[in-house]
Amino acid sequence: METIKQRKQTAVYVYEAPLRLWHWVTVFSIITLCITGYFIGSPLPTMPGEASDHFLMGYIRFAHFTAGYIVAVGFLGRIYWAFVGNSHARELFLVPIFSGKWWKEVGHEIRWYLFLEKTPKKYIGHNPLGQLSMFCFFVVGITFMIITGFALYAEGLGRGSWADTLFGWVVPLMGQSQDLHTWHHLGMWYLIIFVMMHVYVAIREDIMSRQSLISTMIGGWRMFKDDKPD
Amino acid sequence: MPQSIETFYEVMRRQGITRRSFLKYCSLTAAALGLGPAFAPRIAHAMETKERTPVIWVHGLECTCCSESFIRSAHPLVKDVVLSMISLDYDDTLMAAAGHHAEAALEETIQKYKGKYILAVEGNPPLNEDGMFCIVGGKPFLDQLKHAAKDAAAVIAWGSCASWGCVQAARPNPTQAVPIHKVITDKPIIKVPGCPPIAEVMTGVITYMLTFGRLPELDRQGRPKMFYSQRIHDKCYRRPHFDAGQFVEHWDDESARKGYCLYKVGCKGPTTYNACSTVRWNEGTSFPIQAGHGCIGCSEDGFWDKGSFYDRLTNIPQFGIEKNADEIGMAVAGGVGAAVAAHAAVSAIKRAQHKGDQE
């Protein structure tokens, strides 16, 4: 005899609209930044004809700078939202590293990823391991890219420009302009690795954990797949 | 001994320079310094009234390319003007005296013009073995440098050696050569980097200091803003080809003959702060990019240690075998990709097993 499985889904509203909008705007901006950034470092094959007929590098760089501005303004907006949004909007920035319980759950989550735990825990927001890696990869990575990016942009704007005043100090900090370029380039790969893991983990958790993930970042609602306690 | 020194103007007249030529020189210098025409009379006035500034020019570990460049300055002409403008009291490569006489001249200048002379440093001191890798007058150059710097009004770091360290400080730097700001910490230092610096930049910096009696405005790294505020790339005459996406791919291709941008063959113009693309070299005749070779970034810190002069992306030596950011990034991303695929496969198997358990 087959018992009828009880799969009552409960739902919580987690990600508010501005936060979701920010997420997807940042997604498309980072894709644009990686592609254009790669082609700034290693340009496409040479263009034929007169220089006045083309503006390829100009357009690529324009797209890069525009997307960079969008990411930077978006990130500032995201920080603002951490103050005015719901409690989940703060998870990205406030990692409870002084909480023993939280670290214990990080350990639990690591064991779950090493296939040593049979069932994962339920979380309304990020799971502790997710929260930790979001901070280390995304918050640190994007902050580094915004600062080094605008320091590079300041080189074009020139001495005394707003970007030079705010970020010009980064150039001697890294050594010289060439080193800054290299660090910014490595930063791109850091973010690409973040995106790879982020997408994989989101899909995997969506299938294997006890709550929804991908649809949550679209609609905002976290669905739970069972009624069992945490 | 005559205590009052001649003014610049007196020296120039004594050397047979007409007043007309003198005024022409003043307006050319004003233009070279990026000053308006109103400044030409001010320069003339300063030169007519001011005493010459004593300069001590010392040489550490170096190749003398800075001196070679300096003596080829066209505006102002070094032969007639600069060696008279400044009172070059000690410069072991240019002065007639040698040996004990030369060292005596150095001592005399230091004693006589305490706190008033400019110390120009070409090359840099090695610190290893107590400075024994560079001996001047029987003593380590390090000692001479510290001694001469003690009573200097200001210090000019000529070239990339004095400013950054240059080739003798390149990895592995066996003599522990260091830029002079590591040794002289209590004096204002004007860095005039380049290997060598442009002659007109060198004389321009000196003229500015003599004319206005103060240091030129310096940027964060201590370089005069008037010559080091822009990258070669910002004012390069090949820049339209860069913006259009027209690049030299090989040294013998059609693009090279057409004079396209040298970015892809490793030109360091976009990361190099210098005045080559505006002032140019040899009386404004040419500069490396105009001659068809990319900039090697000789006025930038540590330019010897950034991999090949012909690669766009910098090698990162920390990874043993030198790799650039893309090679490292792709390797790590490949590793993460493989890990993700393996983890996904195990997850799928586990899930299938788990499903079996439930049913």
From TrEMBL, chain A:
Superkingdom of this protein's organism: Bacteria
Regions that span the bilayer: 21-40, 60-81, 132-154, 183-203
Keyword Cell membrane: yes
Membrane topology: Multi-pass membrane protein
GO BP, sorted A to Z: respiratory electron transport chain
Compartments reported by the entry: Cell membrane
InterPro entries xref list: Cyt_b561_bac/Ni-Hgenase, Di-haem_cyt_TM, Hydrogenase_cytochrome, Ni-dep_Hydgase_cyt-B
Pfam families linked: Ni_hydr_CYTB
Keyword Transport: yes
Cleaved signal peptide residues: none
GO MF annotation, one: iron ion binding
Domain (Cytochrome b561 bacterial/Ni-hydrogenase) ranges: 14-220
Keyword field: Cell membrane, Electron transport, Heme, Iron, Membrane, Metal-binding, Transmembrane, Transmembrane helix, Transport
Chief subcellular location: membrane
GO cellular component, one term: plasma membrane
Family per record: Belongs to the HupC/HyaC/HydC family.
NCBIfam families: CytB-hydogenase
Function: Probable b-type cytochrome.
Protein name according to UniProt: Ni/Fe-hydrogenase 1 B-type cytochrome subunit
Biological source species: Amphritea atlantica
From TrEMBL, chain B:
UniProt keyword Glycoprotein present: no
NADH:ubiquinone oxidoreductase-like 20kDa subunit domain residues: 63-208
Pfam assignment, any one: NiFe_hyd_SSU_C
Subcellular compartments: Cell membrane
Binding, [4Fe-4S] cluster 1: 63, 66, 161, 195
Transmembrane segment boundaries: 22-40
Essential cofactor(s): [4Fe-4S] cluster; [3Fe-4S] cluster
Molecular function via GO: 3 iron, 4 sulfur cluster binding; 4 iron, 4 sulfur cluster binding; electron transfer activity; ferredoxin hydrogenase activity; hydrogenase (acceptor) activity; metal ion binding
Residues annotated as binding [3Fe-4S] cluster: 276, 295, 298
UniProt KW keywords: 3Fe-4S, 4Fe-4S, Cell membrane, Iron, Iron-sulfur, Membrane, Metal-binding, Oxidoreductase, Signal, Transmembrane, Transmembrane helix
Matching InterPro entries: Cytochrome-c3_hydrogenase_C, NADH_UbQ_OxRdtase-like_20kDa, NiFe-Hase_small_C_sf, NiFe_Hase_small_N_sf, NiFe_hydrogenase_ssu, TAT_signal, TAT_signal_bac_arc
Positions with a binding annotation for [4Fe-4S] cluster 2: 233, 236, 261, 267
GO CC annotations on file: [Ni-Fe] hydrogenase complex; ferredoxin hydrogenase complex; plasma membrane
Record domain Cytochrome-c3 hydrogenase C-terminal: where: 228-309
Cited PROSITE patterns: TAT
Catalytic activity: H2 + A = AH2
One GO-annotated biological process of the protein: anaerobic respiration
EC number: 1.12.99.6
Binding partners and assembly: Heterodimer of a large and a small subunit.
Family, as annotated: Belongs to the [NiFe]/[NiFeSe] hydrogenase small subunit family.
Name of this chain's protein: hydrogenase (acceptor)
Species assigned in the record: Amphritea atlantica
